[in-house]
Amino acid sequence: MKTLLYVLTISGLNFGTKLIEVAYDLGLKLLITRTNLYKITRANLSVVFANKSKDEIEKLTNESCKETLISFFETAYSWGRGPKKTSFNVNKVVNRYLYTQENVHNPRLCFSFHNRSIDFLLSWLLVQNECTTMYKPIKLKSFDEFVRNHRSYNNSLPVEASLKGVRQMLIDIKSNKTINVASDQVPQRKLGTESCFFGKKCYSTTIVSALAKKINNLPIMVHFSKPNKSIYSIIFTPSSSQIKSDEGHKYMNQLFEAEIYKNPKEYSWEYKKFRRIEENKDLYNF
Asked: The pTM is what?
């Protein structure tokens, strides 16, 4: 599997990205507009940016879908090379001190949102330290084992987004380990609560705020971005004590929103973010 992904991404990140951009503009767009990737993205953007015109939403939807395809390529590139080789492509780390200032006596709790390739981001984090990382299992068993192996680099431990996984993260927090949670997706029932995302009701995880209450220091938000055509950046953002409050999930979403607003096309809008809320039941009826 790793060899196949390496061959499929042998063009390299910059050239591969350019190929996807050209293919999308030359005709791939016509195919993508018929997919759920496009339809879900457009539905989410229509809710979040209700003040934009129909033409503006269509343009942003296409830009976002193009970036999503590029993020798939980035993920395949990462899986085909492993964390160490992938991490060499990170050109800039913003606010690195937030990550490096913690020592063995303080566990790190890093929470993120799906901006570009989450596995590209995770590759860099895995190289820095042994980590416990929450993940959602893949239905195809052989592929799930491959991804788990990738995310086990440096003696790291991938744990499922379930009650069992949360218990393991609580154990590892007490052992001062680094914990990584991509916390913007819709969680399993009983692992979340009703919240708000860009002014729209959603179901959000409470895992980050629950874990934050177990540590003395504050969690760090981290995400992956490509602010221009050649710079891949890891960006750390500090949180405040609000993350430990009973409404920490709302504060977490506000941090996500602030970063997403800066470059909305990079965010993975193809997820049904607003499902599990009764008033949103017709949002994704295509």
From this structure: 0.93
Q: Is the separation of the CB atoms in 120 and 83 below 8 Å?
A: no
Q: DSSP for 68-83?
A: HHHHHHHHHHHHHH-H
**In terms of Cα–Cα distance, which of 179, 212, 184 is closest to 99?**
179
pLDDT in tens, 136-194: 888 888 889 999 999 999 999 999 988 899 899 999 988 888 999 999 999 988 889 99
Element (H, E) at 159: strand 157-160
The stretches in the chain having pLDDT less than 50 are: none
96 C-beta neighbours (distance < 10 Å), count? 13
> How far from 71 is each of 118, 149, 262, 286, CA to CA, in Å?
9, 20, 18, 25
Instruction: With residue 149 as reference, give the H or E element that holds it.
Output: helix 141-150
Measuring CA to CA, which residue among 238, 259, 255, 222 is closest to residue 90?
Answer: 222
CA-based max dimension of the chain: 54
